[in-house]
Structures are given as C-alpha cells and as structure tokens.
Write a structure and sequence with these properties.
180 residues, alpha+beta, FAS1-like dehydratase domain-containing protein, Thiol Ester Dehydrase, Chain A, 6 helices, HotDog_dom_sf
Length: 180
C-alpha cells in the first residue's frame, strides 16, 4: 500500500465506529453500590454522594451516584483469560480491527497519549450504560521521539437506558513505527 492509499484509508476511519461491529457496548451490570464502593476505596475518593445514602439523599443528586469517570468501567466486558498471552495481553478477543492495515504497513506499536472526559450527568444507581466509540480525528504522519506515526482520536459517548448522554471520553493514541 502506498502512502496516498494509507492516508486515504486513515481519513476513511473518521466518523466510523472503532470496534468494527458498529454496535454499542452494553454494560454487563447496572450501576450498583458495591462497585461504586470498590472504586471509592481503591482510589481513596470517599465522597459521601458515592457512599452515604442519607447524605446523598439531601444532595443535589437526590441519591447515591457513581463517580463520573467510572463511565468507562461500567461498560468494560469481563476479561477472557484463556489465550491472553497469545493476544499480547489483550483481555478480550477482537475479531475485527479497523486499523489492522496500520500494522501491516509497519506501524506496529501503540502508546496511549491522553484521555479527556466531558460529564453531562453523574450515573445513578440502576442506570444501564451503553457506550459507542467513533473515530473523531486522524493526524497527518508525524515524527516523534518514539518513531514515525499517526495520532488517532476517538470519542466514546456514554448513554443511559433512555438514551440520555451521561458523558463523553476522548481518547488519543499514537500508532507508530518504532525507531530502530
């Protein structure tokens, strides 16, 4: 594949789902108190609107809410441990990869660059969260300290069971050819 074809294929990703299926990811469980409690203790974020029913009832939320940056956590599938080594440590099997052509073109490495959250509403107990990730932007080829590559940005929109947007996560990675 020549450079022009590669760039055209990359630009073609913009506006497309990241997972290849085009279907949203549905949380395996509703927002629930035990997971909120685990998160709060793991991150030492003891905000009473996450943990104290009486306090939360008198807050602007009117009840227990989930930490908003847990949005991604709610939609994570259970890891499949069998074959994880063969998948390079990936916790789930991905049968369709819209960026496989990059690896074939020599852009074999990936590094996460940044992640930004926009919160519309805190998730409430019982919410069923759905996530849909769409490629938002692809850079021109860049020379970096790690190697030559492309910055790929996608936006995951999280919604509740009524289709109300809870928030968005913008995530950026660098797919690159490592310097030798």
């Amino acid at each position: 594949m020549n450079a022009a074809e590669l760039h055209a294929k990359l630009r073609g990703l913009v506006g497309q789902p990241t997972g290849g299926t085009g279907k949203p990811l549905v949380a395996p469980d509703p927002v629930n108190q035990p997971m909120i409690r685990h998160w709060a203790h793991a991150l030492d974020d003891m905000n009473p609107v996450y943990l104290d029913t009486e306090f939360a009832a008198t807050s602007r939320f009117g009840g227990i809410v989930s930490p908003p940056v847990m949005l991604q956590t709610w939609t994570m599938p259970a890891p499949k441990l069998e074959g994880i080594r063969e998948r390079g440590g990936a916790p789930t099997e991905n049968t369709t990869n819209p960026t496989a052509f990059l690896e074939e073109a020599g852009y074999t490495s990936t590094v996460a660059v940044n992640s930004e959250f926009e919160i519309e509403r805190y998730p409430r107990l019982g919410d069923m969260i759905t996530a849909m990730a769409i490629y938002e932007d692809v850079s021109e080829e860049k020379e970096t300290a790690l190697g030559t590559g492309f910055f790929l940005t996608w936006v995951t929109t999280y919604t509740d069971q009524h289709g109300e947007v809870l928030g968005r996560q913008r995530f950026r990675v660098l797919r690159f050819r490592p310097k030798r």
